[in-house]
Write a structure and sequence with these properties.
Number of helices: 21
Oligomer: single chain
Largest sheet: 4 strands, antiparallel
Strand order of the largest sheet: 4-3-7-17
Shape: globular
Radius of gyration: 30 Å
Number of strands: 28
Structural class: alpha+beta
Strand content: 15-25%
């Protein structure tokens, strides 16, 4: 019923705008690739294509029974070749513009689902779908360089006045702009030092230890051949089994191991012990954190546990902190102490001066970084759009020529367990010829993240039958950007962010003239039953077919629209459905018992009786209120 709520709200807007005289594009499509469909098909012993198309037919029948005003002539299905041909084209666009690249990266791996998981899909170290403990694997992966657009994605949030503030804040936090400095701490006996990023260069004189992420490439290099190597390797593996969310949680115990080496603080020349710690992540910053326990709470807890010195370098006005009596880190403004030539400076002023000093000495530079990381887009699954890349022993990585698209996904495959995509076991898919040299070559066997399919579909709606391009510019100019988008809050930092990224890439390529995809956004609330969101996995789903059969589609629509404001959660109530059904029955009986009156025409003139004037006034007031509310 959560889907029914979304569809019903959208249908109200579409019908309302049509009645106001607007040209309304109200399309429907199917985001049909992905892990849920593949897992369900495997579980039921059928092919994902067959399973998916059967479910599409069922859902389409439900929607038609619901009476939604969709333009079915514009229907798109992402798992059909006439659509994913252009998804592959979008990948090639990214590749040609230097925005698609491949590298080895540690990923969350579910052994049961046999696929990578996003960080958001790992809950307490387990797969969000099946509950299996998640492991880390190093795999060759394709990425999109969304980080190249970080600043524009952040700045253009100001253009989205029709979006809920909550969503804009979520995207701002997800992009996570930080202004600070990168500083390199030399490692005696090593060619390269340890580079850190910090927003608190005013605390550099307070560094008493250095911690590296378990995945940092220096960790095993620094202990190689030493008595510490085995213990460090075991610690690294233990950390890799934990989710990033668990490792960085406030209540997670901070753990670490001494690597037995020292780096040098460039500002004061002190030796700083280097450790590996579970609370440092390779994906954030540089994967190394300078420990300033007097002025960072995590560092304070780590120092207390392992006995590192605590050196105060920022004193609050009119107060003197004593490290021996501190019970928590001091992270507020103050004046620098124990900081060499910068003593006495307000710490905010010192940040700028120390940044300039680092650049002058060649020890570092003022830097802007983002929490946002490049988008990992390859999946070790079958049911997804093929990645249009060929590997040739002679020519290397070669993109599939546009005229050879689509790379067709075979629809009969074996689902053997293992890291390699099932496509790797389909010789007629894997084996091909290099488009450059004509020699034998092999296709990429990973498939694309399904968020790629859904990051551009709204453009295809404007021109769904175009066989020569993903869309025509004239058609897009007529309809885009989308005036009203309706979707759940769970898409705030995934689909909605990716769609904004795609739109900016298309804009830069000269294919569209809008810089944002969606002008107005409504995040509808969830449908709650028995205290939890309706979900098949929780066994609390109400079938739309059952409601239609017992009460009719009008009752379903009325209840779903009446029971709660669109942006609030809706508590499912069987009694509420029954009440909506009874109300519609009363309306029906009222109309039918007075159908002769409704069929009469007024004389169009003369003075209205008082009761008629009151009724006319009430009708107009109601129309005004409904218009304003919608």
């Amino acid at each position: 019923m959560g889907h029914i709520r979304n569809y019903s709200i959208g249908d109200v807007v579409a019908r309302f705008k049509t009645m106001q005289g607007y040209n309304v594009l109200h399309p429907m499509g199917w985001d049909a690739f992905g892990m849920p469909a593949e897992n369900a098909a495997i579980q039921h012993g059928t092919q994902p294509a067959e399973w998916t198309r059967r479910n599409i037919a069922n859902m389409k029948a439900q929607q038609k029974r619901l009476g939604t005003s969709y333009d079915w002539q514009r229907e798109v299905t992402t798992c059909n070749p006439d659509y994913y041909r252009w998804t592959e084209w979008m990948f090639l666009l990214m590749y040609k513009r230097g925005l698609a690249y491949k590298k080895k990266a540690p990923v969350n791996w579910c052994p049961s689902c046999q696929t990578v998981l996003a960080n958001e899909q790992v809950i307490d170290g387990e797969c969000w779908r099946c509950g299996t403990p998640v492991a880390k694997k190093d795999l060759e992966q394709w990425f999109f360089k969304i980080t190249d657009y970080a600043e524009r994605l952040l700045e253009d949030l100001s253009l989205l006045g029709g979006w809920p503030e909550r969503v804009r804040v979520m995207q701002e936090n997800w992009i996570g702009k930080s202004v600070g400095a990168t500083v390199t701490f030399p490692l005696p006996g090593h060619k390269e030092g340890i580079t850190v990023f910090t927003t608190r260069q005013d605390t550099l004189y307070g560094v008493t230890f250095m911690v590296l992420a378990p995945e940092h490439p220096l960790v095993m290099e620094l202990v190689k051949g030493t008595e510490r190597e085995e213990a460090v390797r075991a610690f690294v593996e233990k950390c890799r089994q934990q989710s990033e969310i668990a490792r960085t949680a406030q209540d997670t115990e901070k753990e670490g191991l001494d690597l037995g080496v020292y780096c040098i603080n460039p500002l004061n020349g002190e030796q700083v012990p280097v450790w590996v710690a579970n609370y440092v992540l390779l994906e954030y910053g540089t994967g190394a954190v300078m420990g300033v326990p007097a002025h960072d709470q995590r560092d304070f807890e780590f120092a207390k546990k392992y006995g590192f010195p605590i050196r105060v370098v920022i004193q609050p006005e009119g107060e003197e902190l004593d490290p021996a009596r501190m019970t928590a880190a001091y992270a507020e403004p103050g004046v620098l102490v124990n900081s060499g030539p910068f003593n006495g400076l307000p710490n905010l002023e010192a940040q700028q001066k120390i940044g300039a000093y680092l650049e002058e000495k060649g020890w570092g530079r003022r830097t802007v970084t983002y929490r946002l990381r490049d988008w990992l887009v390859s999946r070790q699954r079958y049911w997804g759009a093929p990645i249009p890349i060929i590997y040739c022993p002679q020519c290397g990585t070669v993109p599939v020529p546009e005229e050879d698209l689509p790379v067709l996904l075979p629809e009969n495959v074996k689902f053997d367990p293992g890291v390699i995509s099932p496509l790797a076991h389909v010789p007629e898919f894997v084996n091909t010829t290099c488009p450059k040299c004509g020699r034998p070559a092999r296709r990429e066997t990973d498939t694309m993240d399904t968020f790629i399919c859904s990051s551009w579909y709204y453009y295809r709606y404007a021109d769904p039958k175009n066989a020569a391009a993903p869309f025509g510019k004239d058609a897009v100019e007529a309809w885009l950007p989308v005036d009203q988008y309706i979707g759940g809050i769970e898409h705030a930092v995934l689909h909605l962010l990716y769609s904004r990224f795609f739109t900016k890439v298309l804009y830069d390529a000269g294919l569209v003239s809008n810089v944002e995809p969606f002008t107005n956004l409504l995040t509808q609330g969830m449908v709650i039953k028995d205290g939890a969101k309706m979900s098949k996995s929780k066994g609390n789903v109400v079938s739309p077919d059952d409601i239609f059969a017992k009460y009719g589609a009008d009752t379903a629509r009325l209840f779903i629209l009446f029971a709660a404001p669109p942006d609030k959660d809706l508590d499912w109530s069987d009694q509420g459905v029954e009440g909506a059904w009874r109300f519609l029955g009363r309306v029906w009986r009222l109309v039918m018992s007075n159908k002769e009156v409704f069929g009469q025409k007024g004389d169009g003139g003369g003075e209205l009786a008082r009761s008629d004037r009151d009724l006319r006034r009430k009708v107009h007031a109601t129309l005004k209120k409904v218009t304003e509310d919608v």
